[in-house]
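Quick one: structure tokens for this chain, please?
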Amino acid sequence: MATNFPESEDYIEEDMHIAEYEITWESNASRALREFNEYKRMITKHSTDFKKIMMKESTDFKKIMVKESADFKKIMVKESADLKKIIRKNSEDMNHTMNLTLVISGAVSATYILKTIKDMKQRGTRDDQLVLKGRVLLHFFSGAVSRFAHCNCIEALLCELRGLLWNNDHFLPQ
């Protein structure tokens, strides 16, 4: 019987190891459960805090976007009005430039016709086509010249041509 005791001691020792293992396992499991519950509470708290922060940020973002949108609309309306003014002014400047170019080309043509007609008058010759061109030129350019107050010399040139073409028996239609 004495031989059975050492074996039973082995069993007791083994049972103690199993018991220690179960206690260790239970304590590890309960610790893990506590940690899991703690993480779960932290996640819930952080999730709630995150939702609150996101809602606040979303509201702030909406306010900023509404304000920025309103500011952007004001800027765009102002820029659009400024752009319209610039386009209108450039259009007026271009129109003015085109009219001035037209008047200058008319003055060059009038000068040529006036000189040619004076030469013909001195020689006693006549060119009905040139007279007709001069009259068309007078009719066309008189209105354009009148728009430019600073074109007195061109107006004088056209007046001289008018006088030569309309008030001279030599150039009246036959």
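The CA atoms of residues 128 and 174 lie 10 Å apart.
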